[in-house]
C-alpha cells in the first residue's frame, strides 16, 4: 500500500507541473512583455450580508466566475486594460467598470445590490454539471445541504439519516452503521447504483464490490461543507456507477475551519465517542487540518443462533454467534493545502478508518468485521479552470466472519483513480462547458494468512477509462439548454455511451420547467463475475473415490472436502436505464420553494441475485461451470464410471451442480448470477421548503413510486425494494440562543427481495429530533435522538430490529 500511495503522489506531482504549464497558454496568461494582474470583489446586500450564486462575467474575455458563500469572486491572470464586469442573479443585473495596470491587482470591488431575491435564487450546486451553477439552472433534480444544516444535524454521525426524509431518496437501515442508499427504485443489500464521491474521490472499490461502507465515510459528518444528492441517472458525467444517482460530499478546507474543536458524545446503546479537529495556517500560503475520532457502542444486531427476531424459518438463522457485541470505530486524516499567488491550490491528504465488530447484511447473509482498515490518500491541483486529481482508496479486511457458515473471508484491495477536468465560459457567460477524462484500476486479493483464497480463486484486477463533456447554453433569456455525454470502457464488459440532454424554461418569474432525457449503465463487478464464495460446508465424497480406486489406476479425483460455492458469471452484461424526467420549481412570495418531479425509467438486462445454477426453468445458468469433467488422464470407461457413481450417490440437483474450477479441481457451483428481465418504473417527487419569520423553517416531501416487471422465468423474481409511498415533514428553529428541529418520516409497506432474503417490510413511522445550545462562544451542548418514540421496526427484510438512540454531546472550540 505504501508503494501505491507513493505512486499516487508522484503522479499528482506530474499533473501539477502540467497544470502550471497549462496555465501559461494563451487565454490564461498575458502577452509577451506584459505582467498579469488580478480582479477580485465581493457582492453584498444593502445590509452588508454576503450574496452567493451571483454570476460574474468579465465581458472582454468571456471568463465567468460565481460568488462564493461569503460573496467573493476572483479573476486571476488578467491582462492590463479596461474591463467591465456584468453581475447577474435571478433576472437582476448590474455592471462595474475598472482599469488594470500591468503586474498589479485591482483593489477589491464591493458591489451593493438591493435586488429583491428569494433565499433559493442564491443557492449554488456543483454536482449536476461538475461545475458551479445556480440550483434553479441545474439540468437534473438535486437535493443540497449546506454547512450550517449539516452541523446542526451531525450529532448522530450517520450521514444517510440526513438524506432519509428527502424526496425520491430511499434510505434503508439494517444495523447501527449498515445502510443502503438509492433513488427511484431497485435498492438492494449491497447497493452500488449510486456513486458516492468525497472531494472527488470515489469512496468504494467500484469494480470489486462497488458499495459504500457508511461506517467509514460518515465518521466526521460535521466537517462537510456541502452535501449534494443528484437524483436519477448520472452516467453522462459520472460513468457506470451512477445508474440511480450521485452523492457528492465536499469537506471544509483548512482555511475555512481554522482553530480547534473537540466533541464528546455519549448516550444510548452504551455509546461513547470523541471527535477532534485542528486546523491552522503555516505561512507562505500553507494551511493544515487534522481530524480524528473514536467510537465504542453496542449495535442493533443480535445473535441468531437460536432463532431470528421475526419471520422464523424465512429469515436465515446463524451458524455462529456474534464475535463482538460492542463494535469499535476509529478514523483519522491529515490535509495540507498550498494556496498560490493566483487562484491555484495544491491539496495533499491522507487518512484511514478502522472498524471492528460492525455487522453488515449482504446477499449471502450477515457478516461481522473483526478488524478492517480502509486507508486512502489523494492529491489534487485545482484552479478556476482546471482540476487534476489522483487518489487511492484501499480496503484491508481480515477475517470477516460469515455468521451463517462461520467461515472467514479476507480482502486486500485498492482503487487507483486519476481525473482531469477543465471548464470554460464563452460568449460573455452565455455558454459554459466542462470536459474531462478519468482512468481507474482496481485490484483485490482474498487470500488468508495461509495463502488460501476465500472469495476469489486468485487475485483479480480490472481497469477502466472514460472521457466526458457537457455544454450548457442560454438559447434565450428564458430558455437554457444542456447536453452531456460520456464514453466508458473497462476490462469487464463492453464500451458504453451515456448521453443526457436537458432544457430549462422560465415559464414565469421565479418559475422553471425542466425536461431531460438520459441513458446510463451499471457494469458488473469482480464480485459478480469472479466470485468463489462458500455458501455451505464442504462435501466429502472420498468414499466414492475409494470405491472407484480399482478403475482409477492411481489417479486422484480430489473428492475430499469439495467446496460448496456461489460463483460469479464472467458472461454478465451491463444493466441499462433510459430515463425521461420533467420537473417544475417555483418560488412563492420569496419565502417558499416548491418542487415537483415526474420521471419514467426503462430498465433492462438486470443482473439477478444468486440463483440455483441448475434445476430451474432457466437451464444451466452459468456456462463457465458446465457438467463435471473427470481428469483427462482417465480412460473413457473410467471417466464414465466416475460420473455414474456421482449420479448414483447424490440427489439430481446436487450432482448436476458438480463442476470444475479452472485448474480442474471439483467444485459444487450451486449458486450463480445471470442477466434477466426488464422493468418500467415511474414516480412523482414533491417537496416544499418555507423560510418562515423569526428563524422558523418548515419542509415537507412526498414520494410516489410504481413499477411493472417482466421476468424471464418464475425463478428470476425481481423487486424494486422500494415503497410505493413515503413522506417526510420537518420543522426547524434557529436563533443565536439555540437551534432545534424535529423530523417525521413515514414509509409504506413494501416487498424486499435481495439474495437470500425474500419477504415483506411492514410500514413504519419514526421521529428524529435534535437541539444545540451555545453556552459560550466556544462551548455548545446538544442532543440528538433517532427514533424518538422507540418504534421497533426493520427497514430491510433480514435486517436488524431498530430502536431509539438518544445521544448528548458537548463541543468545545478554541
Structural notes for this entry:
- This protein is mainly beta.
- It has three domains: about 35-115, Immunoglobulins (Immunoglobulin-like, Sandwich), CATH 2.60.40.10; about 125-530 and about 575-610 and about 675-814, Maltoporin, Chain A (Beta Barrel), CATH 2.40.170.20; about 530-565 and about 610-670, no CATH class.
- The protein is about 10% helix and about 50% strand.
- The protein is built from ten helices and 48 strands.
- The chain has a 25-stranded antiparallel β-sheet that branches.
- A hairpin with a 2-residue loop joins strand 44 (about 750-755) and strand 45 (about 755-760).
- The longest helix has 21 residues, at about 1-20.
- The radius of gyration is 28 Å and the shape is globular.
- Residues about 1-35 have low confidence and may be disordered.
Amino acid at each position: 500500500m505504501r508503494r501505491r500511495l507513493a505512486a499516487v503522489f508522484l503522479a499528482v506531482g506530474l499533473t501539477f507541473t502540467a497544470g502550471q504549464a497549462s496555465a501559461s497558454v494563451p487565454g490564461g496568461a498575458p502577452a509577451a512583455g506584459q505582467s498579469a494582474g488580478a480582479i477580485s470583489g465581493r457582492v453584498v446586500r444593502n445590509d452588508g450580508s454576503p450574496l452567493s450564486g451571483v454570476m460574474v462575467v468579465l465581458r472582454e474575455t468571456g471568463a465567468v466566475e460565481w460568488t462564493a458563500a461569503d460573496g467573493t469572486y476572483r479573476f486571476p491572470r488578467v491582462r492590463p486594460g479596461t474591463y467591465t464586469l456584468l453581475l447577474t442573479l435571478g433576472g437582476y443585473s448590474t455592471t462595474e467598470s475598472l482599469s488594470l495596470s500591468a503586474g498589479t491587482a485591482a483593489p477589491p470591488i464591493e458591489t451593493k445590490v438591493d435586488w429583491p431575491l428569494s433565499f433559493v435564487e442564491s443557492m449554488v450546486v456543483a454536482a449536476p454539471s461538475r461545475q458551479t451553477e445556480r440550483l434553479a439552472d441545474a439540468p437534473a433534480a438535486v437535493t443540497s445541504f449546506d454547512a450550517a444544516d449539516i452541523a446542526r444535524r451531525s450529532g448522530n454521525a450517520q450521514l444517510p439519516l440526513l438524506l432519509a426524509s428527502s424526496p425520491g431518496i430511499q434510505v434503508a437501515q439494517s444495523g447501527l452503521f449498515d445502510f443502503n442508499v438509492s433513488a427511484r427504485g431497485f435498492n438492494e443489500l449491497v447497493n452500488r447504483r449510486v456513486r458516492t464521491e468525497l472531494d472527488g474521490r470515489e469512496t468504494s472499490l467500484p469494480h470489486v464490490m462497488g458499495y459504500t461502507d457508511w461506517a467509514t465515510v460518515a465518521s466526521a459528518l460535521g466537517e462537510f461543507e456541502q452535501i449534494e444528492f443528484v437524483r436519477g441517472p448520472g452516467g453522462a458525467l459520472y460513468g457506470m456507477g451512477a445508474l440511480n444517482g450521485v452523492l457528492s460530499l465536499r469537506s471544509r478546507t483548512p482555511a475555512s475551519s481554522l482553530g480547534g474543536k473537540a466533541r464528546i458524545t455519549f448516550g444510548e446503546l452504551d455509546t461513547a465517542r470523541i471527535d477532534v479537529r485542528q486546523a491552522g495556517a503555516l505561512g507562505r500560503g500553507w494551511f493544515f487540518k487534522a481530524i480524528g475520532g473514536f467510537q465504542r457502542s453496542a449495535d442493533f444486531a443480535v445473535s441468531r443462533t437460536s432463532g431470528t427476531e421475526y419471520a422464523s424459518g424465512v429469515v436465515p438463522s446463524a451458524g455462529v454467534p456474534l464475535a463482538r457485541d460492542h463494535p469499535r470505530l476509529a478514523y483519522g486524516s491529515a490535509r495540507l493545502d498550498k494556496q498560490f499567488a493566483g487562484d491555484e491550490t495544491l491539496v495533499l491528504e491522507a487518512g484511514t478508518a478502522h472498524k471492528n465488530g460492525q455487522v453488515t447484511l449482504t446477499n449471502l447473509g450477515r457478516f461481522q468485521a473483526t478488524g478492517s482498515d480502509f486507508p486512502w490518500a489523494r492529491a489534487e491541483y485545482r484552479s478556476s479552470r482546471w482540476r487534476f486529481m489522483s487518489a487511492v482508496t484501499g480496503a484491508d479486511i481480515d477475517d470477516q466472519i460469515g455468521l451463517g457458515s462461520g467461515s472467514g473471508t479476507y480482502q486486500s484491495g485498492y482503487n487507483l483513480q486519476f481525473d482531469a477536468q477543465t471548464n470554460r465560459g464563452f460568449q460573455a457567460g452565455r455558454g459554459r462547458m466542462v470536459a474531462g477524462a478519468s482512468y481507474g484500476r482496481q485490484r483485490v486479493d482474498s487470500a488468508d494468512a495461509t495463502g488460501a483464497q476465500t472469495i476469489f480463486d486468485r487475485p483479480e484486477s480490472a481497469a477502466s477509462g472514460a472521457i466526458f463533456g457537457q455544454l450548457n447554453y442560454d438559447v434565450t433569456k428564458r430558455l437554457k439548454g444542456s447536453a452531456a455525454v460520456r464514453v466508458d470502457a473497462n476490462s469487464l464488459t463492453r464500451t458504453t455511451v451515456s448521453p443526457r440532454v436537458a432544457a430549462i424554461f422560465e415559464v414565469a418569474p421565479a418559475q422553471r420547467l425542466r425536461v431531460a432525457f438520459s441513458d446510463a449503465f451499471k457494469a458488473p463487478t469482480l464480485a459478480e463475475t469472479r466470485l468463489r464464495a462458500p455458501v455451505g460446508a464442504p462435501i466429502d465424497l472420498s468414499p466414492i473415490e475409494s470405491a472407484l480406486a480399482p478403475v482409477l489406476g492411481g489417479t486422484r479425483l480430489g473428492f475430499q472436502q469439495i467446496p460448496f460455492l456461489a460463483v460469479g458469471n464472467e458472461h454478465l452484461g451491463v444493466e441499462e436505464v433510459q430515463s425521461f424526467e420533467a420537473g417544475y420549481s417555483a418560488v412563492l412570495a420569496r419565502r417558499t420553494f416548491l418542487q415537483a418531479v415526474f420521471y419514467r425509467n426503462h430498465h433492462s438486462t438486470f443482473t439477478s441475485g444468486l440463483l440455483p445454477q441448475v434445476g430451474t426453468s432457466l437451464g444451466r445458468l452459468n456456462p463457465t461451470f458446465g457438467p463435471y469433467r473427470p481428469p483427462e488422464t482417465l480412460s473413457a470407461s473410467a471417466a464414465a464410471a466416475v460420473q455414474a457413481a456421482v449420479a448414483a450417490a447424490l440427489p439430481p440437483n446436487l450432482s448436476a451442480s458438480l463442476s470444475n474450477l479452472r485448474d480442474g479441481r471439483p467444485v459444487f457451483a450451486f449458486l450463480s448470477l445471470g442477466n434477466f428481465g426488464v422493468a418500467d418504473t415511474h414516480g412523482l417527487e414533491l417537496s416544499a421548503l418555507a423560510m418562515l419569520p423569526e428563524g422558523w423553517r418548515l419542509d415537507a416531501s412526498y414520494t410516489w413510486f410504481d413499477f411493472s416487471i417482466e421476468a424471464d422465468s418464475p425463478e428470476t423474481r425481481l423487486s424494486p425494494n422500494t415503497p410505493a409511498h413515503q413522506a417526510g415533514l420537518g420543522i426547524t428553529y434557529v436563533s443565536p440562543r439555540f437551534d432545534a428541529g424535529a423530523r417525521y418520516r413515514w414509509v409504506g409497506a413494501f416487498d424486499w427481495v435481495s439474495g437470500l432474503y425474500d419477504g415483506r417490510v411492514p410500514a413504519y413511522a419514526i421521529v428524529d429530533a435534535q437541539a444545540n445550545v451555545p453556552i459560550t462562544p466556544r462551548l455548545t451542548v446538544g442532543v440528538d435522538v433517532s427514533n424518538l418514540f422507540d418504534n421497533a421496526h426493520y427497514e430491510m427484510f433480514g435486517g436488524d430490529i431498530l430502536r431509539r438512540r438518544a445521544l448528548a454531546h458537548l463541543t468545545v472550540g478554541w
